[in-house]
């Protein structure tokens, strides 16, 4: 049975492999690993997904990492994690959630846009700081597209992947 739960800071290292699915540069991951809140999707106590959320200000949080075990993708797990995170922060009076993705990562863009996110800004040359080039569908990522969505106390994230 699928369950979502917050991960204690001292247990985050156990989720490193999953976090590296969402952000493949360990140096970039280290920048936010000890901040924010990590949520895990567990299936019979086995981790199959993660979501890392960092507070931006009093009204906004940013989804820094959302990843699902490759063999479990397209089963609604990422949508469930996003919905869980959205409800947790909406009940804490946060108003908006941001997420960044690569300029050529069309699958991620489609995923987030189907869940109500809209383009907010562009972080030019963002992927230049990665130790190795990052590719999506054979295209080198260069800029980060930042998307934004209101946080509402509804079940708006249930669109299937």
UniProtKB/TrEMBL annotation:
Q: Would you say which domain of life the source belongs to? A: Bacteria
Ribosomal protein as a keyword of this entry, yes or no, is no
Protein name, as recorded: GNAT family N-acetyltransferase
Which Pfam families has this protein been placed in? Acetyltransf_7 (PF13508)
KW Acyltransferase (keyword) present: yes
UniProt keyword annotations, A-Z:
Acyltransferase, Transferase
Domain named N-acetyltransferase: residues: 2-142
Stored InterPro entries: Acyl_CoA_acyltransferase (IPR016181), Bact_Acetyltransf (IPR050832), GNAT_dom (IPR000182)
Task: Give one GO term, molecular function aspect.
Answer: acyltransferase activity, transferring groups other than amino-acyl groups
């Amino acid at each position: 049975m699928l369950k979502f739960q917050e991960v204690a800071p001292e247990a985050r290292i156990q989720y490193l492999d999953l976090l590296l699915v969402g952000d493949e540069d360990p140096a970039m991951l280290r920048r936010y690993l000890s901040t924010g809140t990590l949520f895990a999707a567990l299936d019979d106590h086995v981790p199959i997904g993660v979501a890392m959320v960092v507070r931006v200000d009093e009204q906004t949080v940013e989804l820094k990492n959302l990843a699902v075990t490759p063999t479990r993708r397209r089963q609604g797990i990422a949508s469930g994690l996003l919905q869980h995170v959205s409800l947790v922060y909406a009940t804490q009076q946060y108003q908006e959630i941001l997420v960044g993705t690569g300029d050529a990562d069309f699958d991620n863009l489609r995923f987030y846009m189907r869940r109500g996110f809209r383009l907010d800004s562009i972080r030019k040359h963002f992927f230049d700081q990665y130790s190795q080039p990052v590719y999506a569908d054979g295209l080198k990522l260069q800029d980060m597209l930042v998307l934004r969505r209101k946080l509402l106390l509804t079940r708006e994230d249930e669109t299937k992947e």
